[in-house]
Design goal:
Length: 529
Amino acid sequence: MNSYYSLTYALLFLPVTMIIYQLTSAKRRWFILLAASYVFFWSISGRLLFYIVFSSLSIHHFGLWFQHFNQQLTKQKTLLDKKQYRIVERQIKTRKRYVLLLALVIHLGMLVGLKYAPFFAENINVFFRIIRLPLALPVTRWLLPIGISFYTLQAVSYLVDVYRGVAADDHLGRLALYLSFFPQIMEGPICRYTQTAQALFAGKSITYSQLTFGIQRILFGLMKKMVIADRLNPLVKEIFSHYDYYPGAIIFLGAVAYTIQLYMEFSGTMDIVIATAEIFGIRLPENFRQPFFSRTISEFWKRWHITLGTWFKDYVFYPVSMSRFSKKLTVKARKKIGHYYGPLLVGAIALLAVWLCNGFWHGVGWNYIFFGLYHFALILAGNLLLPFHKKMLKKMKIDSHHKLYQSMQIVRTFVFVCIGELFFRADGLRTGMKMFYRMITSFASTAVPSDMLFYLGVDRQDVMIVLVAVLIVFIISVFKEKKYDLRKTLASKPVPVRWAVYYMLILMIVIFGAYGSGYVPVDPMYAQF
């Protein structure tokens, strides 16, 4: 059992967990979910389960520590006069800050040490060689537990929220389940304690409605992954592994194919994750909202990996932009460069911090950092040029709400996204630069063999199946964009109609899914980040 797509998970682990959960009393169902989560974690990461257990114990202890500080403040408020209380309040708040710093160092330090230590060591060694210093740091590569990037952000959000005033949870089991819930441990979504902890602990019974709605979405997610993402895998691997054999148009095709593959795998996984939680009566936050209908890069990142973007906004952007230094700088900037560009300057500093963290979070390599800076530059440029853009539209009498104009914006944004994903997927920043250079300098090359599909590892049948499946996803996305709930509509139809749709999805996965000889299934793509 290495993913949500394995037969062991689908035919054994999940059904057995559901049966045991349903047969257990409501008060003890949380324990079944926790046990299932640890079994799932152990099946993939083995003894590395220690890390998530340690994180659970740690945030429980630090949360109670913060609660103790808050209780001290409440007690002293009744015993001291205002002047004395302010002195005690400052002292306790200072201690709280030091405790928060210690907690963040432990949790983020564990993530950085396990995931990024080799990257830092290698780059420091390069610097030593450049300055001819006869030193070299040891490059130690650690085994990473699944989901460490995801559950670490959840742990940090809990600690910061309790520091800010959210009541700490004294129940260790509830915190442990919040951090390790098996459907979301590999690829998210990244949840806040207040969003899911109580629902995870409630032990609601599995209902027929929840089960059928969950199965609908699980099948749709499997279709995205197995019919589209897995079938595109040979083409993507071939182009990115041998880009120097192909002209720029084929490299751009590879970038587009990878962007579609990444979306189908990641959003398909989210469908399975959210649907599985729904079966147990738990509502997880959505992580995608039709991102390819976005008209700007900024809008795209409000629709793609929503929970990660929200996390960075709340725990990086706002703390930086609302700091004392930023507020003073904003006042000065307003006076010198105006009410629009003044705050934008300070916002750019916070935005840079967000995108450096975003790129760094995604992976270990300069191409990921470049990926973050690339999107930072596009969003900042869009903000800087917005007044000029509005003036030009007004001067040229262009209706920004016209469908043709909005369609052009969507296409432009999609191209920008594909270029970013090219660097994201490339084997290092240097390779990404070479691929991009080749793409723009030899795009219209005629050196394309007639049997190109054969060289790319796919055939006409693969192309047709992918195009039809993508069209199905696109049509469903259009309905969702128009706020039309297809799932409820399907649920209201007669049983034969509903089951016809279910069987269609099952047959589509069985017949057109990419598996067997010649196909290597795509590993959970975001789990590696």
